[in-house]
């Protein structure tokens, strides 16, 4: 994947993934209101079956790779140039926080908007639809920003804007107010498309990318496990509106660390290559 196109390709890939995640509740809300929960569950099962069929019939061979055994994770981490090692740790932490807040949003919005504020399921789905539409709309500009302006211009707002939106969420009581916050989350989600992956791709040596990207994503998935559980505990303790405040300091910390502890990596592939060449002399 060429470095000058990395942002656009990753933006498109993750944009479609996030849009599907956000669009699902909209479709489910409409189906539940019109045909009941059972129909929504059957629809989900049908989509899952279709994806399974496509996966089974699709095949793409692995490209031949030169070299012998790949380094273990510890050796792979040591292979990152010194100036980028802290950056990789920060990006991994930010991945954890972003996955944590996104999965928690899927759990908290139905409780807060539907159960606590009393709006119908279609209204909850419409909020997710706003997020989905803006994520799709942001795919081209987000890719341009990552490839032409800088990776951090997508990564930093991806954390700081949701921190503001989550901090304001308990004050939002009407659908227009909730819609504005949904728009902020959609814009931030759009700017984040592929940002963490592009940052990490820039600084990880080619021979270690598979292992270290898998490790970073694993940490992110742990955030996806912890997030809804923490949101549930916070909701039981102080209500869904209060639970949003749990994530504000984490998002602020991730955004500030990305802003001040991570160098801009848009030109990092060339610099990292030079550093590894110098270390090998």
How are the secondary structure elements laid out?
Layout: H1 6-35, H2 37-57, H3 73-78, H4 82-116, H5 121-137, H6 139-149, H7 152-168, H8 175-191, H9 195-203, H10 209-238, H11 240-243, H12 248-261, H13 268-279
Report on the structure:
With 281 residues, this protein is mainly alpha-helical. It has a single domain (6-45, 76-279), classed as Growth Hormone, Chain: A (Up-down Bundle). The protein is built from 13 helices and no strands. The protein has helices at 6-35, 37-57, 73-78, 82-116, 121-137, 139-149, 152-168, 175-191, 195-203, 209-238, 240-243, 248-261, 268-279. Helix 4 (82-116) packs parallel to helix 10 (209-238). The protein is globular, with a radius of gyration of 20 Å.
Task: Looking at this protein, list some descriptive labels.
single chain; 281 residues; mainly alpha; Growth Hormone, Chain: A; 79% helix; globular
Overview in brief:
With 281 residues, this protein is mostly helical. It has helices at 6-35, 37-57, 73-78, 82-116, 121-137, 139-149, 152-168, 175-191, 195-203, 209-238, 240-243, 248-261, 268-279.
Q: Total number of helical segments?
A: 13
Oligomeric organization of the protein chains: single chain
Topology-level CATH name: Growth Hormone, Chain: A
Radius of gyration: 20 Å
Helix residue percentage:
over 70%
Rounded mean pLDDT is 83
The fraction of residues in strands falls at under 5%
Shape: globular
CATH class: Mainly Alpha
SSE order, one letter for each helix or strand: HHHHHHHHHHHHH
How many beta-strand elements?
0
């Amino acid at each position: 994947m060429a470095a000058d196109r990395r942002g656009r390709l990753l933006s498109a890939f993750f944009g479609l993934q996030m849009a599907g995640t956000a669009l699902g509740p909209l479709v489910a809300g409409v189906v539940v209101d019109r045909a009941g929960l059972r129909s929504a569950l059957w629809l989900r099962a049908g989509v899952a079956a279709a994806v399974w069929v496509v996966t089974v019939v699709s095949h793409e061979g692995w490209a031949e790779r030169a070299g012998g055994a790949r380094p273990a994770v510890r050796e792979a981490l040591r292979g990152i140039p010194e100036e980028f090692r802290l950056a990789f740790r920060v990006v991994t932490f930010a991945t954890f926080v972003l996955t944590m807040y996104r999965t928690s949003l899927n759990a908290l919005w139905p409780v807060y908007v539907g159960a606590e504020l009393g709006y119908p399921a279609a209204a909850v789905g419409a909020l997710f639809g706003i997020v989905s539409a803006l994520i799709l709309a942001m795919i081209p500009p987000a890719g341009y920003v990552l490839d032409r302006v800088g990776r951090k211009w997508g990564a930093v707002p991806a954390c700081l804007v949701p921190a503001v939106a989550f901090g304001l969420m308990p004050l939002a009581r009407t659908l227009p107010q909730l819609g504005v916050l949904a728009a902020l989350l959609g814009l931030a989600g759009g700017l984040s498309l592929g940002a963490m992956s592009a940052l990490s791709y820039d600084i990880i040596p080619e021979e270690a990318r598979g292992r270290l990207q898998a490790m970073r994503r694993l940490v992110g998935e742990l955030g996806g496990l912890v997030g809804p559980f923490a949101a549930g505990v916070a909701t039981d303790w102080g209500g869904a509106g209060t639970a949003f405040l749990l994530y504000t300091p984490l998002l602020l910390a991730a955004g500030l660390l990305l802003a001040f502890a991570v160098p801009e990596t848009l030109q990092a592939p060339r610099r990292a290559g030079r550093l590894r060449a110098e270390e090998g002399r």
